[in-house]
Amino acid sequence: MRTDQITCPSSLDQASRHTWTGIVTDGKTIIAVFLTLLGLSVPSPGFAEVIQAARVQGPIPINPTDVFWSNYGPTRDKQMVIELQAQMMANPMWPSPATKHVTVQAVVSEKEIALRLEWIDSTRNDIMVQSQQYKDQAAVMFPVNPSEEVPPFTMGAEGQRVNIWQWKATWDKEGAGTNDNSAMQDIEDQYDHMAMGSGSYYIYEPGGNLVPSPDPEKKLTERGTFIDPGMGKNEGVFNPGRATGNILSDNTLRRSPVEDLNAEGFGSLTTQAQQDVDGAGNWNNNRWVVVFKRRLKTKDPNDTQFTGKATPVAFAIWNGNNKERNGQKAVTVFHELRF
Question: Domain check: are 276 and 290 in the same one?
Answer without folding.
Answer: yes
